[in-house]
Amino acid sequence: MDAKDLLRIIEDGENAELECKAAKGGLPKDVWETYSAFANTNGGIILLGVEQKGQEFFPVDVDAKKLVKDFWDGINNPQRISKNILVDRNVEIIEVDGKEIVKIYVPRASREDKPIYIGHNPFTGTYRRNYEGDYKCTKEEVQRMIADQSPIPQDSKVLPNYGLNDLNMESVRSYRNRFSSLKPDHPWNGLELKDFLYKIGALGRLRETNEEGLTLAGLLMFGEERSITEYLPQYFLEYREKSSDVPGERWTDRIISSDGTWSGNLYDFYFKVIRRLTDDLNIPFQMEGLFRKDDTRVHAALREALVNTLAHADYYGQRGIVIEKEKMLFRFSNPGVLRIPLQQALKGGISDPRNPTIFKMFMLIGLGERAGSGIENIHLAWKEQHWTAPELIEEFQPDRTILTLRTTSLLPQESVDFLKAVLGKHYKFLTNDEVLILVTAHQENYVTNTRLQSLTDKKSDEISKLLSGLVEKGYLEPNGQGRGTKYTLTEMFHQKSIGNSRYNRISSGPNVNNSGPNAANSGPNENEQTKDHEKVLLDISELARKKKRLNPSEMDEIILNLCAIKPLTLKELSQLLNRQMDPLRKKYISRLLKEGKLEPLYPEQINHPKQAYMTRSLFTNQH
Which Gene3D superfamilies match (predicted)? Predict the structure, then answer.
């Protein structure tokens, strides 16, 4: 085995991050930070005795046996680390180019074991992994992990100071009517209101004191928004709809829980939103006997996605629930990460809802499938339509789970035409799998190994070879490490897209959906526009490049003027301003974002590999 084959040995897990440590002086101290970070996120692989330079990996001389012994001694020492979640097979010595290296596979810890932390204090020793590497968790993140350890569901908590006066009775009556219509002979239909609410889990009783109160599920499902936010100040529900695919255009329909025109509870939110989600579905009707069947598997999938979002949300978390509908996609986003590994959630069959009582309430009125079947049913519905496979991701800082359902073909013609225009005669040398990868990167801004596993029948190592081949050809650029690497289209594709509103919010150029067939003829105009932009950007930033020290207010003004021309990445700003990226981000970009003067291009994915920044006035002027 040689160094080029090093990554091919990594076959544990489907979305493992990779951390290489030279370990020339013995077991590195920061190995425990990485162990904690991998265990508290999505798992990963640590390679000891490997030096990384860019995307190249080189084995170095180490005492592998001693590294293994020191690692096991440390991980089994409760003074060093809170818990060992590894077994013998997770640590092995392998040989590369005649040198021994240590491979450590760290699985994702179960919610019962999280947080995995260094030392005695979880609030100072807990780490997680994000796009930039290991980071120390905030107090709030640790508290959410500790809360998820409990076997007692979040939403079964009895709130003794909350009662029927906190409920919206119209919501309750509507629910009972739906229940009795669906189950006319059910014995609960004859119960008094309190008894009915107790049966469905909306009302509870503290056994120690016999005191009654609403459960958290009852308050969320049927409560008045004012009562809900008194207990959960961060509670917020939002639906956003945009009928146009022009970036920056105003939402054409919006619902928020705090506007005072409706109850603001989950039950009413569901029915307000589901009608809008399914209103204009362009799905051919089906026949059942002599009758038309308007309800399709896609309708059911959208109901399932909405119920799952409401049942899996962490209502103590930040930024609330956001449901989005655009011309070619639906997106369901909720606070809180998954309570089971991402790969397990995608496979279906196992579920661990954070709010099982809320899930039960929806099931009692015929909404929501059996636990664990939701994602599976959604995948099946999208596969029947030959649409791009659903994408389920987790984000951290703050914790969020995001399900994106695109109603685009696996190979949209506009993307195929775009690739042909850029690659010319080289396009015909691409395999079908390579075309799919590049099209997905074009449609979704990036691809990952895991994402491609959901789109193809290929295994992780086969996809790694395909991705590596496209990187060598200069078509893809890797961002990150290991199986969590995000691959984006290279600059050659970006240059072709200058002037195209898919990539540039302020461009006046043609829309990609209409420009595919003519793309090959539009190159010269786009190149001229690119040169014009580059000259303006260089002129604006000239002072910063010439002077090593600038007044912060002067630098602020230059950055805002640059980002008013077009969205710019941190790397682009660094080059224009002749400043290092890390200080630039910490001293200027982060502050300007907090002050609302800059706007991220991808606000829902802060760690997006193509994250760029634009001046707030640019963004608001387009609304």
Answer: 3.30.565.60, Schlafen, AAA domain, Winged helix-like DNA-binding domain superfamily/Winged helix DNA-binding domain
Cα–Cα distance for residue pair 538/534, rounded to 1 Å? 6
pLDDT at position 479: 78
Cis peptide before 398 (omega within 30 of 0): yes
- Which residue has 């020290």 as its token pair? 549
> Which residues of 388-438 form beta strands (DSSP E)?
391-395, 400-406
The pair of three-digit structure tokens given for residue 485, joined into one six-digit string: 């690497």
Contact 399, 133 (CB under 8 A): no
For residue 220, give the nearest of 259, 261, 266, 170 by alpha carbon: 266
- Report helix, strand or coil for 206: strand
pLDDT digits (tens, 9 = 90+) for 570-615: 988 988 998 888 889 888 998 898 888 888 887 766 767 778 888 8
Task: Could you list the beta-strand ranges (E) of 220-357.
Answer: 237-241, 253-256, 286-288, 291-293, 321-326, 329-335
pLDDT tens across 319-342, in order?
899 999 988 899 999 999 888 777
Residue found by looking up tokens 């906190």 in the block:
166
Whether pTM > 0.85 for this model: the answer is no
126 forms bridges with which residues in the sheet? 117
b/e per residue, 500-526, with b = 16+ CB within 10 A?
A: bbbbbbbbebbebbebbeebeebeeeb
Q: Enter the DSSP assignment of 202.
A: S
- Distance between CA atoms of residues 441 and 436, nearest Å: 9
* CA–CA dist 60, 20 (Å, integer): 11
Q: Which amino acid is at 490?
A: T
Distance from C-alpha of 3 to C-alpha of 567, rounded to nearest angstrom: 38
Rounded-to-5 percentages of helix, strand, coil across the chain: 45, 20, 35
Q: Could you give the angle at which helices 297-312 and 266-278 cross, rounded to 10 degrees? A: 150
- The answer to whether the CB of 616 falls within 8 A of the CB of 242 is no
Instruction: Say what the alpha-carbon torsion angle 401, 151, 172, 369 is, to the nearest 10 degrees.
Output: 60
The tokens for 482 are 């290991």
205, two tokens: 């009783």
CA distance 270 to 363: 13
d(CA 513, CA 516): 7
- Residue 157: how many other CB atoms lie within 10 Å: 17
Amino acid in the structure at residue 324? E
Sign of torsion over alpha carbons 62, 64, 66, 71: positive
Question: What's CA 60's distance to the chain center, in Å?
Answer: 36
Please tell me the total number of residues recorded for the chain in this structure: 623
Q: Are 439 and 451 in contact (CB under 8 A)?
A: no
Q: Distance (Å, rounded) from C-alpha 514 to C-alpha 474? A: 27
How big is the chain by its Cα radius of gyration, in Å? 27
Which residues contact residue 135 at a Cβ distance below 8 angstroms, ignoring those fewer than 6 apart? 37, 127, 128, 129, 397
Distance from chain centroid for Cα 82 = 28
